Structure formats: C-alpha cells, structure tokens
Amino acid sequence: MNRVVVTGMGAVTPVGNDVKSYWEGLISGKNGIDFIKRFDTENIGYRLGGEVKDFHPEIYMDRMSVKKTDRFVQFAICAAQEAMDDSEIIDKIDSKDLAVYFGSSIGGYETNCNEHLNLINRGAKRVSPMFIPKMISNMAAGNIAIRFNAHGPCISVSTACATATNAIGEGYRAVKHGYAKAAICGGSEAAITPLSLAGFGSCMALNPSDDPKAASLPFDKRHGGFVMGEGAGALILEEYEHAKARGAKIYAEVVGYGSTCDAFHITAPEEEAKESSRAIYEAAEALRDLAPEDIYVNAHGTGTPLNDKTETKALKKAFGEDAAKRLHISSTKSMTGHLLGAAGAIEAVAAVMALKEGIIPPTINLVEPDEECDLNYTPNEAVKADIKAALSTSLGFGGHNACVAFKRGE
User: Fold this and answer.
1) By C-alpha distance, which of 394, 389, 405, 410 is closest to 292?
2) CA distances from 391 to 327, 371, 403 (A)
3) Domains parsed from the chain with CATH numbers
4) Strand boundaries in 240-279, DSSP class E
5) What sign for the dihedral angle of Cα 136, 198, 332, 400?
6) Which of 338, 373, 400, 403 is catalytic?
7) For this structure, is 400 an active site residue?
8) Which strand (E) or helix (H) includes residue 200?
9) CA distances from 184 to 8, 158, 168, 397 (A)
10) Does the annotation count 338 as an active-site position?
11) Which residues, 6 or more positions from 171, have their beta carbon under 8 angstroms from its beta carbon?
12) How far apart are CA 293 and CA 277, in angstroms?
C-alpha cells in the first residue's frame, strides 16, 4: 500500500478566496454570513447566505471560459489552480498518473434556473446551447481534468453534503492502491438561488434568522437550521515517494477514510448514530495510538438541531464518551455557512491547516450550548494546541456519512 500525502491546497470561500485569507479568516473568527447581495430576497423568507465576495475568475480563466461556465465550475477551477500551483506538481507528473476526484451536490443550479426562465419567457430556441455543459454536475471534474491534462481516472462524486469528503476519500484510495500517483480532490458549489432557498426552506432545513450573528449556530441551543454557503476547496493528494522524490512540501499525511450510509431517511440522520459513528471510527483507526487531546475534529456541525445532536452522539460512540470530551472540535460552518457539496473540501483544508499551524479554529456564535451537545466545541475564540492528527466529518441527505483522517506531515 502507498502512503498518501497532501502537497497542495486551494480554497474559494465566504471568508476568503485563497487558502491564506480563508485560514486567517477562520482563526480570527470572521463571520462570512451576511445579507444576500446577488438577488432580491424580499419575497423568499430567507435573506442570509455565505456568499463568496469579490470573486474574479479572470485571475485564472480567460473571459470566454468564464462565459461558458457556471459559477460552480469557476470556483472549482480557481481552487484547483491554487492547489496545483501550491503543490508545484505541474509538469512533474505523467498525465496518465494524474487523477481527478471532484464533486458537486447540485452542479450548475444558477444556470439551470436561468435557462428554465428563458424557456418559459422566451421559448425553446432561446435556451443556450451551453445550458447542458454549464449545468451538469460532472463539469467541475471535467474542466479540471482538461485544464491540467489529467488522463487518469476522472470521477465526479455527488453524495449531497458528504460529496467533497467522499471525493477526497476516494482519491486517497486511488493513490493508496496505485491507480494514480496524484489526484486533484475536492468539491464546489454555487447554489444560492431564489429556488434553492425556497426549496431548502420548505423542507425546514434553513434558519430563517435575519441576524447574521445569530443564523449559523452549530451546537448552540438556538440552532434552527443551516445557512447556505458557496465556494470550492481542492487538495492535491500525492503518493509519498513521488512527492519526496521531487522535493515537494508536505502539509499532512492522509491516514484514514470511512464511508457509510444510514439507509434510514432521505433527509434526517439516524438518531442513534450507528453508521455515522462507524464512518468516524473507521477513519480514525490509524489514530488509536494518540490521546484524544492530540486530535482535532472539524465537525459537520450544520446548526440543525437533529444533526448537531446526532453528530455529538456519533463522536461519543466512535471514541467513547470520556475520550470524546477531550477532543478538540469545532464547526467552521459557523463562519462560512454550509457549502453543501463543497463543505467537506474547505473543511479538510481547515483541518490540515489546524495541524500545520497548531491552532484550532473556533465555533463562533456559540453562546448558549445545547445540553445534548456537551463536547469541547471551541467556542468563539481560536485555541493553540499541539495536535498530531485531524478528522473532517460530513453527513449528507440520503444518509451519506464520510470522514477523512490526517496526521501531521513529516
């Protein structure tokens, strides 16, 4: 089996459009939640979101490419380009050895909505010939592969909110078992639209709060639903000997992955956390020699009451109740909102950066802890900690559970 390491990262998020600004935003407790600016929310009932600010895709893309792609693809390409530049792997790997494992929960939803309006208001002949290539959810992976001449496996994952964590985990397995020397892994989402807000709102998933400081509230007694976010994250996973031979910097080693399904309900998690805890347990198998204080968990932590309570229970089952209370845990969704299919990617970046810098990012807005969420969720301020490992967990609609484990790079 090959060892697998992280040699590059990229991020486009509501608190920063590159890894440096994203990380600085997280550890300073920056709130990326605000009133939505891209369209009028007056008649929708949900006014807040974690929008990406000051995004200029032309930094990495020509104008024609921007015109021909949905925002979720633009986010993906920008994050992937930053990660590839960071890794310095370009031109140092055979194209057949470079894979892409990149996903989106919803794909080009803005394009879908806009072209449907074209159909209704202007007729079938006014629907753009680029509608399908802009809309289908594999186009983030496809465009990344084209851009970087990646001739290895190109797999687009779509497992709701577990998408990016599954993409990272499957990329890890591909490199570990020799199907690729390196993989561009992650997820992208740009689904903040009037229809998506109305839809998630109708199924009682969103917090209707009009207060940006009291909307994304993971593990807080006031939690009343998540806040939609958007953006992308990318990690370059590379076979250790290949990375070492070319003198690559190593952020962390990927040491575990768990993937299970509740097979219980289309939206609600299974409350006893049988399968979500198993995903965490399996990912953390390689961390059994560490004390709980040595481990950071970037929790799924959406701010929906059932998810927060179930995830707390899952961590207790996976580690044991006493050990779980000694873990360092936080939900960075308190700052970014929920990026759906991209959440696991930017949260994996946060987990790796926490390992590298020895800083636990906070769960902001946590002022009234839920009695059933009684673990150490790092309330409101970042904490220095000499951690040796990190986990990133994701739980998705349909019962998808995923978790990846990292150890400090050597």
Assistant:
1) 389
2) 11, 24, 7
3) 4-245 (3.40.47.10), 258-408 (3.40.47.10)
4) 252-261
5) negative
6) 338
7) no
8) helix 194-202
9) 9, 16, 9, 25
10) yes
11) 99, 101, 180, 183, 184, 185, 237
12) 19
Identified catalytic residue from 161, 185, 373, 403: 161
Helix (H, G, I), strand (E, B) or coil at 71: helix
**Catalytic option among 300, 328, 373, 400:** 300
CB distance 242 to 93 below 8 Å: yes
Helices (H), 34-187: 63-67, 71-87, 109-122, 131-135, 139-148, 163-176
Strands 359-360 and 328-330, sheet pairing: unpaired
Contact 258, 10 (CB under 8 A): no
| DSSP single-letter state for residue 269 | P
Question: 173 is written with which tokens?
Answer: 């397995």
Q: In order along the chain (410 residues), what is the average pLDDT of each group of 10 residues?
A: 97 98 98 96 94 95 95 98 98 97 97 94 94 96 98 98 98 98 98 96 94 97 96 98 97 98 93 96 96 98 96 98 97 98 98 98 97 97 98 95 92
56 is catalytic: no
Q: Tell me which residue of 367, 124, 87, 392 sits closest to 256, measured CA to CA.
A: 392
Name residue, tokens 């465009």: 143
